Amino acid sequence: MKNCWEENQCGREPGGKWAEKRGPCPVPLFTLADGFLGGENGGRACLFIANQLSAGERKQVCSQSADACEKCAFQKKLKKKYKRSFSEPLFVKFIQNASSR
């Protein structure tokens, strides 16, 4: 399975075609989530990362509306594939463990 920026082809990952013009998305830069559900940086945790951001910052994730994450086809694929592992409490625990390394 791909990371969100690969799946959605947003072009806002570092070096992506829109990163300079529109600014980089915070998800591919979120290194504490590296490895969560097998993704690179925040690539499989974009929903949980977006939930931790302010409304203005959240709009920087995929440049979509605040509720777009819950409707995202990629998020639905992750939920289906990872079932119980796809949860915000497990994500928070993962990044807490990562920050203590």
Describe the overall structure.
- The protein is mainly alpha-helical.
- It has one domain (4-94).
- The chain has helices spanning 4-8, 19-22, 46-51, 55-58, 68-71, 73-82, 88-99.
- The termini are far apart.
- The relative contact order is 0.16.
Topology:
Elements: H1 4-8, H2 19-22, H3 46-51, H4 55-58, H5 68-71, H6 73-82, H7 88-99
What tags apply to this protein structure?
101 residues, mainly alpha
Number of strands: 0
Determine the structural class based on helices, strands and strand pairing: mainly alpha
Shape: globular
First CA to last CA: what distance?
26 Å
Content of β-strand: under 5%
Number of helices: 7
Summarize, please:
This protein has helices at about 5-10, 20, 45-50, 55-60, 70, 75-80, 90-100.
